[in-house]
Design brief:
- Keywords: Signal.
- The longest helix has 23 residues.
- The protein has 5 helices and no strands.
- The protein has a domain of 89 residues: Lysozyme (Orthogonal Bundle).
- The N and C termini lie far apart (70 Å).
Length: 129
C-alpha cells in the first residue's frame, strides 16, 4: 500500500478513535477546576439547601459570566460586586477565577443577609441585593 494511503487511513482511524474516546469519556472524566463551569464549582461550595437561591441571584446578576461588568455602575463578576475589587479579599485572582468569586459571593450573602436563601428573598422584593 502506498505511504500516502497508509497515512490517510491511519489519520482517519486516529481521528475517529479520538472522537469516540472524547464522546465516551466526557461523562466519566474528572472535572478539573479549569474545565468546571461556575455552576459546577458553586455546587461544590454552596450548601445544597442554599444552592437554588444562590443560583437565582447569580443568574439574574451576571448570567454566570465571570467577567460581567455593569457599564453604568462598574459592578463586576458573578455577584456584581461594587466595586469589583472588594472580591480581592477572597483572592488575588478575583477578576477571572469563578471559585474566588463564588467564595466571596457566598460570604457576602451570609454576612449581609444571613444566607443565600435570605438574600434571594430580599432580591425578589427589591430586584437587587
Amino acid at each position: 500500500m502506498p505511504a500516502f494511503k497508509l497515512r490517510m487511513r491511519t489519520s482517519a482511524a486516529l481521528l475517529a478513535g479520538v472522537a469516540g474516546l472524547t464522546a465516551l469519556g466526557a461523562g466519566v472524566m474528572p472535572a478539573t477546576a479549569s474545565a468546571a463551569t461556575p455552576q459546577q464549582i458553586a455546587a461544590k461550595i454552596v450548601p445544597a439547601n442554599q444552592l437554588a437561591s444562590f443560583s437565582q441571584i447569580i443568574s439574574h446578576e451576571s448570567s454566570w459570566n465571570v467577567t460581567a461588568t455593569n457599564p453604568s455602575s462598574g459592578a463586576y463578576g458573578l455577584a456584581q460586586a461594587l466595586p469589583g475589587s472588594k472580591m480581592a479579599s477572597a483572592g488575588a485572582d478575583w477578576k477571572t477565577n469563578p471559585t474566588t468569586q463564588i467564595k466571596w459571593a457566598l460570604n457576602y450573602m451570609n454576612t449581609r443577609y444571613g444566607s443565600p436563601n435570605a438574600a434571594w428573598a430580599f432580591w425578589q422584593t427589591h430586584h437587587w441585593y
